[in-house]
Structures are given as C-alpha cells and as structure tokens.
Design goal:
The chain is built from three helices and 15 strands. The protein is mostly beta strands. The protein has two domains: 111 residues, Immunoglobulin-like (Sandwich), CATH 2.60.40; 58 residues, Trypsin Inhibitor V, Chain A (2-Layer Sandwich), CATH 3.30.10.10. The strands form three sheets. Strands 1, 3, 4, 6, 7, 8, 9, 10 and 11 form a nine-stranded mixed β-sheet that branches. β3 and β4 form a beta hairpin. The chain is elongated and about 70 Å long. One of its GO terms (biological process) is response to wounding. GO terms for molecular function: serine-type endopeptidase inhibitor activity.
C-alpha cells in the first residue's frame, strides 16, 4: 500500500479528457452576433509555463462556418497534463486572410477542475472594417426567435424587411401559399407564405 501511494504522488496530476464551454462576444452570454459564412474558428490549448520560451501547442481544433456567437465547443485533450504547468486557451476566428475575432486576454485552464473542464472564452472584434457587412449584433430574444406569428396579415414585403433587420439573416423571402417547397431544413432561411394579394397568410418560420 505504501509503495502504491508513493508512486501515485510521484506522477503528475492528470486532468480530464475534455474542455467545454462557449465562445462569447465581449464575454457576454446575452450578446449574439451572426458570423460571416466561410469563416474558420480555431481553438488552441497551449502550454505557456516558460515565460522566456515559446508556447507549446498541446491541442488545436478548427470549426468551419460557425453560424453565430455564442458558440458552444468541446475539445478532447490529453489525459497526462501536469498540474505544475500553465495551460491557456486561445481563439481566432478568420475569414480568408482577415482576422475577425480574437480573445484579448489570457485564458488559463484549471487542471484541477472536475472532468469535463468548463471554460468560456471571451472574444472581441479586431476591427469593425474587417467584419462582413452581413454581420449584425442582435438582441438575445431576436437571435432565438424562429417564427413570427405577428407578421400574419401584414404586407409580405414588410415582413421580409422586418425579419431581416431583426435577425441579420439575408435568405428571407415570400412564397405563394400552398406552393410546392423543398423539404430540406436550413437554419439561415425564412419562408414567408403570402396570398394572391401579397399579404402574409401563415406564420413565417425558419426552415
């Protein structure tokens, strides 16, 4: 028993095998933003223990076409990381050669946390000029809304403009009621049924 305890103490403390959390604009879970299509989100875990040496990459993952922030992530990590070292998380969201969002503060990972480790990562805009014009900060309620029953009875053209402004979506359009539609589901598309007079006849929904 004594030998087993001694060997256990000599080995570095191991952490769990995953980190999960959210990427948050300005660290605010209630702030939502559309992210340009074609963007790449890179999440990195690095060993930054040595101040006079470069960081050592432990794990990196990339996610293509993140639809919006906040964005929930989960990263599998090695199970032999030492509690004596310093580990930090970083995030970069890019589109082509343009850097759109980045975390501007050091995010330390607590290796003594229970598995899975929970750690949110705040990010900031790098430059407003580098953000695609289609991106738009919207309220949390508008970001979550997926149907608009209040548009029934209104002009179809008004409903299109209203939903675009509220959601930041661009793929919003009217369709003639009872017309044939594709059955695929898209979270960036809103169909607005209208009658022969162009009046919204049924609840517009994301579909």
């Amino acid at each position: 028993m004594f030998q087993l305890i001694l060997l256990t103490c000599l080995f570095p403390l191991c952490i769990g095998n995953s980190i999960h959390g959210q990427i948050l604009l300005d660290g605010d879970a209630n702030k939502s933003v559309r992210v340009s299509s074609g963007s790449t989100t890179t999440i990195s875990l690095q060993d930054t223990s040595l101040a006079d040496a470069g960081a050592v990459m432990i794990k990196q993952m990339q996610v293509e076409n993140v639809f919006a922030l906040p964005f929930a992530f989960e990263m599998e990590i090695p199970d032999d990381l030492s509690s004596h070292n310093t580990y930090t998380l970083s995030v970069r969201i890019t589109k082509g050669v343009n850097l759109l969002y980045i975390n501007d503060q050091q995010i330390r990972v607590n290796v003594n946390s229970k598995n899975p480790i929970t750690q949110d990562i705040p990010v900031v805009r790098v430059s407003q000029d580098e953000i695609n014009a289609a991106e738009k900060v919207i309220s949390n309620d508008d970001a979550k809304q997926t149907s608009w029953p209040e548009m029934v009875g209104k002009e179809g053209s008004y409903a299109v403009q209203y939903i675009k402004e509220k959601t930041g979506l661009t793929n919003v359009f009217t369709i003639r009621q009872n017309s044939a539609m594709t059955m695929d589901y898209r979270q960036d598309r809103v169909r607005i049924p209208v009658d022969d007079n162009g009046i919204v006849s049924a609840t517009p929904i994301i579909a």
